[in-house]
Specification:
- The chain is an alpha+beta fold.
- The protein has two domains: 40 residues; 174 residues, Alpha-D-Glucose-1,6-Bisphosphate, Chain A, domain 4 (2-Layer Sandwich).
- Helices cover 39% and strands 39% of the residues.
- The protein contains three helices and eight strands; from the N terminus they run αββαββββββα.
Length: 220
């Protein structure tokens, strides 16, 4: 009789363990589908074309923003404060000036997939053409064999700009979900900078309106 009860208890524990594994697996599949299918990002997230070819990545994206070129430029080049508004960026520091609009920038960011996150470090050689382009390339090669890309600002129509982003990179190590880390990090970067551009422009417009009104009163 005791042997029968012990057998039932053992089978019950095994069934519970199997059920727990099943629900965990099912939950992981749901989260993975949300992330890879775009459900994990805001409905108005920046469209991203991301290709993963065995650890070699190519990312292309563009978005329109109703903002002044100075606002867009100030957001993209606010290197020492990027961590305040870019999700996943843990460190951003100007390291060394190498001439006019040429410097080294150290950055560290976190990418995540499911319940795992990974920190990635780059030491970027940056060249700027004011209010037009930012070219960057990793010189540290700590986590990437190569990591090279650009930001470009184009005038679309009066009061409307198009921001273009490109990146080509290849990781040094073959790690599980590395491509998903990268895609998530790039998506976070794009969505974060666009939100900040919109926020700063919204602050700037009322300030300009007040200044214009004050100037009108003075002229009277």
């Amino acid at each position: 009789m005791n042997l029968h009860k012990d057998g039932l208890a053992t089978n019950l524990r095994k069934n519970r363990a199997l059920l727990r594994k099943f629900f965990l697996y099912f939950f992981a599949l749901l989260v993975g589908a949300a992330l890879t299918g775009g459900m994990g990002f805001a409905a108005d997230g920046v469209p991203l074309d991301f290709k993963n070819n065995g650890g070699s990545y190519d990312a292309l994206a563009s978005f329109d923003v109703a903002a002044d070129s100075s606002v867009v430029w100030d957001v993209l080049t606010d290197y020492d404060h990027l961590t305040h508004f870019v999700t996943g960026l843990k460190r951003s520091r100007l390291e060394e000036y190498r001439g006019r609009s040429h410097f080294l920038l150290e950055q560290e960011f976190t990418g995540g997939f499911l319940f795992v996150s990974k920190r990635v470090r780059v030491r970027l050689d940056v060249h700027e053409t004011r209010c037009q382009t930012i070219l960057f390339e990793d010189m540290g090669h700590q986590d990437f064999a190569f990591y090279k890309g650009s930001w470009k600002i184009q005038s679309n129509s009066p009061g409307q700009l198009t921001v273009l982003y490109s990146l080509s990179a290849q990781q040094n190590l073959d790690e599980p979900f590395a491509g998903d880390y990268m895609k998530g990090s790039v998506q976070n970067l794009l969505d974060s900078v666009r939100r900040e551009m919109i926020r700063r422009q919204a602050i700037k417009r009322p300030a300009l309106a007040v200044l214009s009104k004050q100037e009108s009163l003075v002229s009277l």
